[in-house]
């Protein structure tokens, strides 16, 4: 029997929150839900991942910039409240005297954000993922994707990007076939 999958409009904030909670293991690996509506900026979801790292999941059904800004504000609030969080959620304490790992922030946006790849580079503990709501055999589901690459952003109607016209093979150890492909792609 074939499955019927189709795009759905983004639901209300409470319904989207329920989808995020149901998708928690897909977003943060095996994770334990600590609070489905943390009482701080943007009311993010708070979880503890398998590595015992606090994970904030910030989202907004309509505005990705708002999801990012409220997530960053909540992340700052959470870092400042580390000892309080350990008392409120004893499961985060771990071994006596063991510090918490730096918290992780996952931002879910309905549309790609400009600068996502630059912001998430390195070990910042920040992930920005795009979400879509689907209907699978009549059941609402959350599809979470990595940020769009520049070529995908162009095909999705994003703003035009300027291309670097230098040959990208200068510092790479490429096979002849790879070098020929890149030379033809970047004349």
Please give a structural write-up:
- By secondary structure, this protein is α/β, with parallel strands linked by helices.
- The chain has one domain (5-148).
- It has helices spanning 13-22, 24-28, 64-80, 82-88, 116-119, 150-155, 176-185, and strands at 5-8, 31-35, 45-49, 54-59, 104-109, 126-136, 139-145.
- Strands 1, 2, 3, 4, 5, 6 and 7 form a seven-stranded mixed β-sheet that branches.
- Strand 6 (126-136) and strand 7 form a beta hairpin.
Keywords summarizing the entry:
7 helices, single chain, 187 residues, alpha/beta, seven-stranded mixed sheet
Q: Give the helix/strand class.
A: alpha/beta
* Total DSSP E strands: 7
Give me the number of helical elements: 7
Coarse morphology: globular
Spell out the blueprint of helices and strands:
Elements: E1 5-8, H1 13-22, H2 24-28, E2 31-35, E3 45-49, E4 54-59, H3 64-80, H4 82-88, E5 104-109, H5 116-119, E6 126-136, E7 139-145, H6 150-155, H7 176-185
Short précis:
The protein is 32% helix and 24% strand. The chain has 187 residues and is of the alpha/beta class.
